[in-house]
């Protein structure tokens, strides 16, 4: 997979999406920036910061992904594979539903996925060494570009959704101590039911994770 590396981008996610739409780039491809000035976080928040942290986006053709992957849970799939890579460096990292990286009780990063025609674009931001965006950092000794290469190697094995979900189902229990924003309201995950497709049932409402 080709990797495009930049010293600075406003947003790796926006850049990759714009270039794909313009026909200037084609999947599979990855973009990484050492610094990001206007990155995209959840709920339209920004995820930005300077050198030492991880800012990257990856474009994958839908037909390259496992046939059993529910597209609505693509963020869980992409993020959990990254979590597995990071576990080598910190055993207390885990994935809070649906797409936030946590170190114990502190958020350290997140993922966001968008579908462009037949391509899925996943952006991942992680505070590797510096506390930024109001969140903690993993404090691990790995260069962002090395982490991206490790992640791509893990991703290219394309584990099935069933494989990923069997592990994530167990880890989901850690999410029950937290809440999520649904339709601008904060909802507790304490009694949420995790469905086979990665969605949740909360108070009778089915909630999907794609964002």
Question: Briefly, what is this?
Answer:
The chain has 211 residues and is an alpha+beta fold.
Overview features:
single chain, 211 residues, alpha+beta, BirA Bifunctional Protein, domain 2, three-stranded antiparallel sheet, 4 helices
How many H/I helical runs?
4
Rg is 16 Å
CATH superfamily: Bira Bifunctional Protein, Domain 2
Distance between the termini: 24 Å
User: Largest sheet at a glance?
Assistant: 7 strands, mixed
Shape: globular
Whole-number mean pLDDT: 91
- Which architecture per CATH? 2-Layer Sandwich
- What's the number of structural domains? 1
Give the CATH level 1 class.
Alpha Beta
Portion in beta strands: 25-35%
* Structural class estimated from helices and strands: alpha+beta
Largest beta sheet: strand ordering: 1-2-3-7-6-5-4
**What name is given to the CATH topology?**
BirA Bifunctional Protein, domain 2
Instruction: Give the helix proportion (percent range).
Output: 10-25%
Q: What's the order of the H and E elements? A: EHEEHEEEEHHEEEEE
Give start-end ranges of low-pLDDT stretches. Answer: none
Number of strands: 12
Commentary on this structure:
The chain is an alpha+beta fold and 211 residues long. The protein has one domain: Bira Bifunctional Protein, Domain 2 (BirA Bifunctional Protein, domain 2, 2-Layer Sandwich), CATH 3.30.930.10. The chain is 22% helix and 32% strand. The model has no long low-confidence stretch (mean pLDDT 91).
């Amino acid at each position: 997979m080709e990797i495009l590396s930049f010293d600075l981008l406003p947003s790796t996610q926006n850049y990759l999406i714009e270039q794909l739409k313009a026909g200037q780039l084609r999947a599979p491809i990855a973009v990484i920036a050492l610094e990001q000035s206007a990155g995209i976080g959840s709920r339209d928040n920004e995820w930005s910061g300077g050198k030492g942290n991880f800012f990257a986006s990856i474009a994958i053709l839908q037909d390259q992904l496992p046939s059993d992957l529910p597209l609505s849970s693509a963020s869980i799939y992409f993020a959990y594979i990254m979590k597995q890579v990071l576990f080598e460096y910190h055993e207390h990292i885990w994935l809070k539903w649906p797409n936030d990286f946590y170190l114990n009780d502190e958020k350290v990063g997140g993922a966001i996925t968008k579908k462009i025609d037949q391509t899925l674009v996943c952006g991942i931001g992680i505070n590797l060494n510096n506390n930024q965006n109001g969140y903690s950092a993993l404090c691990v000794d790995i260069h962002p570009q090395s982490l991206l290469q490790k992640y791509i190697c893990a991703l290219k094995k394309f584990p099935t959704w069933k494989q990923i979900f069997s592990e994530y189902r167990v880890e989901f229990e850690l999410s029950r101590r937290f809440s999520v924003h649904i339709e601008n309201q904060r909802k507790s995950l304490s009694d949420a039911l995790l469905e086979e497709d990665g969605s949740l049932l909360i108070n009778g409402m089915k909630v999907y994770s794609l964002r």
